[in-house]
Design goal:
The structure is a single chain. With 237 residues, the protein is mainly beta. It has one domain. Helices cover 9% and strands 27% of the residues. It is built from 3 helices and 10 strands; from the N terminus they run βββββαααβββββ. Strands 3-2-8-9-10-5-4 form a 7-stranded antiparallel beta sheet. A hairpin with a 7-residue loop joins strand 8 and strand 9. The protein starts with a strand and ends in a 5-residue tail after the last strand.
Length: 237
């Protein structure tokens, strides 16, 4: 388990923020916007998608969802359905009417796609923002919060204390972070492509792979690609 070394990259980050409108999605320009040359709003872009945690079954105090916004919608979305002999699930019409429980086993379907993240304009624009300071690491941290890799440190309540009653508090106690990185968790999410009224999937993210193809001279990761696999779950009512 690795402690988080950047104080801004923690569990308090509930989104990776807005995307610079000058970054157009692959595949061409979109179909709305202002007149070209009229100012900031003249950039024609496609609506981009996002992944958001499903907090409907969470306690009220934990219902603030985490968002991971796409920079570009994926060019290809691969959907797979298969029979999982180890986790068989009867069809809805085969279930007994007396069985009022909800099936929570993962179904044998998955959705995989690759996303491209680019913080070029944030970095070269000289903005005083975390996107400019950390590049795509800011986006990756938002995804870490979605899948539960980031979590609260259980030792935060004992910071500065010593197991020796005659001892003194640690000199570096104030530097200990509350957010630490750990194993990925099975958290239900919705993945929306192009907005909430278009293609979407429900399940948990079961695999993440990062590639860093480009850095700045200061070794800030400027661009990255993210390979994601979402394992399907029965959508809650």
């Amino acid at each position: 388990m690795f402690s988080r070394i950047h104080k801004e990259l923690n569990l308090d980050q509930h989104s990776n923020g807005d995307i610079d409108p000058r970054q157009l999605p692959s595949g061409g320009i979109g179909w709305w916007g202002g007149n070209i040359g009229s100012g900031k709003e003249d950039h024609l872009t496609f609506p981009t998608g996002y992944i958001v945690t499903d907090t409907s079954q969470m306690p009220t105090k934990d219902r603030d969802p985490y968002y991971f916004k796409f920079h570009y919608n994926p060019s290809t979305v691969t959907v797979t359905h298969s029979l999982d002999m180890a986790n068989m699930m009867p069809a809805e019409w085969q279930r007994s009417e007396s069985d009022t429980g909800t099936a929570v086993l993962p179904i044998a379907s998955s959705c995989s796609f690759t996303l491209f993240l680019d913080r070029t304009y944030d970095i070269i624009g000289g903005r005083k923002s975390n996107q400019a300071k950390y590049g795509v690491m800011f986006d990756h941290n938002a995804l870490y919060n979605v899948v539960g890799i980031n979590s609260r440190s259980r030792t935060s309540s004992a910071v500065g204390q010593s197991s020796d009653p005659e001892g003194t508090p640690s000199s570096d106690a104030s530097a200990l972070p509350e957010t630490v990185t750990g194993p990925m968790q099975m958290r239900p999410v919705y993945a929306y492509f192009g907005g909430g009224d278009s293609l979407f999937y429900y399940g948990f993210i079961s695999n993440i792979t990062f590639d860093y193809p480009h850095y700045t001279q200061s070794m800030i990761p400027q661009r990255s690609s993210v390979n994601l696999t979402i394992t399907g779950l029965p959508q809650p009512n």
